[in-house]
Write a structure and sequence with these properties.
Bound molecules: nicotinamide-adenine-dinucleotide
CATH superfamily of the largest domain: Aldehyde Dehydrogenase, Chain A, domain 1
Protein name: Aldehyde dehydrogenase family protein
Radius of gyration: 24 Å
Organism: Phyllobacterium zundukense
Keywords: Plasmid
CATH architecture of the largest domain: 3-Layer(aba) Sandwich
Structural class: alpha/beta
Oligomer: single chain
Helix content: 25-40%
Length: 513
């Protein structure tokens, strides 16, 4: 598939791909190996590149959630009957299935979620790699033997939690789905995942491919439904053992509170307002490129977006001029064009929020260097395009310096000293990511150690890997979703004591010696 296939109304094509995977054009939840239709409110899927609705489906009702939880609980027991190496083999086979269907998966993600095809092609490969990485962990996840001061053999087991509920947002549904499902099943759990009601399709396909790769039917169930109805029902369900939430800080707090009432732990992957710091000794060409990918990749709909650009005053003016000129050349347009680097905003509500926040930023004294509106050449498409936007001389106290935009909008603030840059970077309740650009790498390490963020880059931005832990500090959440760290969150530790002495020294449960 390539540029020749640009379709002004992708609806029929989306249905065709979906039917090729799940055997029906009807959209519903993927529960226990079948598409199950909901009976709740009618929800609409809209093509972000044209603004046209292309499908409707009914919100998953309580019976769908109950069915998914029952199926997951039973599949989890089946899953644990396999050997650890056997589970690893299944996960490798899931990865193979994903690679085999990568063209169709990338196309459906691109057309239905609005992400540029050049991004989604890479994301499918990344998702396959997530399953491969955790396939390798299946038979290496073991406990310890602890040298206790009694006559016991004491050892630990990392046991699965059971049924994990995962809730994901609309910005990168396929990538986020793989990122969450792979460690969960590696650790022996079953999954009930609810993607955003705006972008459920690629996650439904992922659930199907898990089953086709050999996972027990019902091990991965995908709910097509809304947060406040279906999501809430899953979080508060009696069979839920862990909730993993990726989304806004507002919804995250509500979900964590609901989970706490159910005495269920949470991992929260929330938003950010990350600082990208450019010092006077930076390689400016690289820093400009980095500052573009930091905020404009994914049209800024990225949790790690470098939305606060702090630039040393000695290079501030020339940096902003060159950054602006380079930004105006970034190809914005149809996500299904090979050349497109910035696609549309996912939905109209978000487009309106971005536009309002830019106007507010200007109202609070920022200078609009470029962007701030829908690009003229895309006016007639009806798509939710927003031009990459640079606001210069943004006050650290302005709303746009404090609140997440979740769009292609960066605020530039000059600084004078290293100490001031660190203070500005930390002057925010979020703490998801950040970066520093400077040729003196030793000073880069120093800054890295002082900025409060879960991920930090020196002379780079946005590189993440399933092998490395990812998560937030502060209001960006807690818990880690990848690398070895995720496996600890997806398991619970059991301590086992075996008496080995002929004449035990422990009496009445206490160590007497
Ligand atoms: P959102 O919080 O509105 O929705 C996220 C998901 O939660 C959706 O599936 C939604 O249906 C569900 N939901 C909403 N309210 C709920 C409730 N009360 N109970 C149960 N489920 C509920 O977020 P969004 O607008 O879809 O996504 C944008 C946000 O996601 C941004 O803040 C962004 O930074 C964040 N995000 C974070 C990461 C990360 O890894 N830290 C990654 C991507 C996006």
């Amino acid at each position: 598939m390539g540029n020749a296939d640009i379709i002004r109304d992708p609806g029929p094509r989306i249905h065709e791909i979906l039917k090729g995977f799940v055997g029906t054009e009807e959209i519903g939840s993927f529960v226990n190996g079948e598409i199950v239709l909901g009976s709740g409110e009618e929800l609409t899927l809209t093509d972000p590149s044209s603004g046209k609705p292309f499908a409707t489906f009914k919100d998953a009702d309580k019976s769908v959630i109950d069915g998914a939880m029952d199926a997951a609980a039973s599949a989890q027991r089946e899953w644990m009957k396999l050997t650890a190496s056997g589970r690893g083999r299944v996960m490798n086979e899931i990865a193979r299935k994903i690679r085999e269907r990568s063209t169709d998966i990338a196309e459906i993600e691109s057309r239905s979620a609005g992400r540029p095809i050049r991004d989604t092609r890479g994301e499918v490969v990344k998702v396959a790699e997530m399953f491969e990485y955790y396939a390798g962990w299946c038979d290496k996840l073991h406990g310890d033997v602890i040298p206790v001061p009694t006559s016991h053999l004491n050892y630990t087991r990392q046991e699965p939690i059971g049924v994990v509920v995962q809730i994901t947002p609309w910005n990168a549904p396929l990538n986020t789905g793989g990122w969450q499902i792979a460690p969960a099943i590696c650790a022996g759990n079953a999954v009930v995942i609810k993607p955003s009601e705006l972008t459920p399709l690629s996650t439904i396909i992922l659930g199907l491919l898990c089953e086709q790769g050999g996972a027990p039917r019902g091990l991965v169930n995908v709910i097509a439904g809304q947060g406040v109805t279906a999501g809430q029902a899953a979080v508060t369900h009696s069979k839920t053992g862990l909730v993993v939430f990726v989304g806004s800080a507002h919804a995250g707090a509500l979900i964590a509170a609901a989970a706490a009432r159910n005495v269920v732990p949470c991992i929260l992957e929330l938003g950010g307002k990350s600082a990208n710091i450019v010092f006077g000794d930076a390689d400016v060409d690289r820093a400009i490129l980095g500052a573009q990918s930091a905020i404009f990749g994914g049209a800024g709909q990225s949790c790690v977006a470098g939305s606060r650009l702090l630039v040393h005053r000695s290079i501030h003016q020339q940096f902003v001029e060159r950054y602006t000129a380079a930004t105006e050349k970034i190809p914005v347009g149809d996500p299904y064009l090979d050349t497109t680097q910035i696609g549309p905003i996912n939905n109209l509500r978000q487009w309106n929020k971005i536009s309002e926040m830019v106007q507010q930023g200007i109202g609070e004294g920022a200078h609009l260097a470029t962007g701030g509106r829908k690009p003229q050449q895309l006016e007639e498409t009806g798509g939710f395009y927003f031009a990459p936007t640079i606001l210069d001389n943004v006050s650290p106290d302005a709303t746009i310096s404090k609140e997440e935009v979740f769009g292609p909008v960066v605020g530039v603030t000059p600084f004078d000293t290293e100490e001031e840059a660190i203070t500005l970077a930390n002057n925010n309740p979020y703490g998801l990511a950040g970066a520093v650009w400077r040729q003196n790498v030793a000073r880069g390490h120093r800054v890295a150690s002082q900025v409060r963020a879960g991920t930090f880059w020196i002379n780079g931005y946005k590189t993440i890997s399933v092998m490395s832990p990812f998560g937030g500090f502060g209001k960006s959440g807690y818990g880690r979703s990848s690398g070895r760290d995720a496996l600890l969150a997806y398991t619970q530790t059991k301590s086992i004591w075996v008496e080995t002495a002929a004449e035990p020294t422990v009496t009445f449960g206490y160590f007497a010696g």
